[in-house]
Amino acid sequence: MTPPRPLIAGNWKMHGLAAALEEARALAGLLKAQPAAARVALCPPATLIDQMAWALKGSDIAIGGQDCRAEASGAFTGDVSAEMLKDAGAALVILGHSERRAGHGESDADVAAKVVGALRAGLEPIVCVGESLAERRAGHAIDVVQGQVRGALPADLAGRTFAVAYEPVWAIGSGLTPRLADIEAMHAAIRADLIEAFGPTGAATPILYGGSVKPANAREILAVADVNGALVGGASLKATDFIEIIRAI
Ligand code: 13P
Question: Which of 14, 89, 118, 154 has the most CB within a 10 Å radius?
């Protein structure tokens, strides 16, 4: 079985005005000079997707959204659909990020409905899962994450292209990362669930690690079994940092 093609995705979160497109252009220049082994994606705020799509035209960098509404359109003030992200130039969308689960009360069922919306629009979902510090300390990390995998990944994903991102909530933006053995155990558990649920699709689905990935730790994390890439927050905002992570796989 061929292993999943690695994916390194940058999640800009709520950072970036038009001037930040310079970083995206700089990244495209670095990748053009030396192509990467991994697929590369940038997920800017929704306001920048259209401009970034123009700025990166002809580059190898795919663009992603950070969330979408499940419905295609309707009376949902302030929300954005997967169709709209696609129309603006996105090819992927991050769904179920812990900042959405915590800040917007998104449940696994909500995330699963968004995944269906993303697939309908032709977007590749990156579905995020991850335990809290209390859950890890209580010894429940793997159970919690497996529950999220089962609840947030609908059967519609069989045969489709998608990614799962394991992001321990306590590792995000904290500078802390799990022990490599804990990352390996979690990714193995997710892989087993993916294969059980989706068969060969599950074996080919990249499982990304996210949470305080930096140039200094990327190489050792990306070398862990079943770590097929990274979802990078803060270190994706600067092309010179992000390229080091991209080149670490
Ligand atoms: P940091 O890389 O800033 O810890 O963020 C991780 C993350 O939440 C990516 O989605």
Answer: 118
- Which residues are known to be catalytic? 97, 167
Contacts 24+ apart (CB under 8 A), 178-182: 178/136, 178/211, 180/220, 180/221, 180/224, 182/141
**CA atoms of 217 and 189, how far apart (whole Å):** 22
What's CA 95's distance to the chain center, in Å? 8
What pTM was estimated for this model as a whole?
0.98
**Domains of the chain, start order:** 7-246 (3.20.20.70)
* Alpha-carbon span 95 to 246, nearest angstrom: 22
Instruction: Return d(Cα 222, Cα 206) in angstroms, integer.
Output: 12
**What separation in Å is there between the alpha carbon of 109 and the centre of ligand 1?**
23
Q: Which residue is associated with the tokens 């960098």?
A: 61
Q: How confident is the model at residue 104 (pLDDT cuts 50, 70, 90)?
A: very high
Distance, first Cα to last Cα, the chain: 19
Q: Which residues line ligand 1 (CB under 6 A)?
A: 11, 97, 167, 172-173, 210-213, 231-235
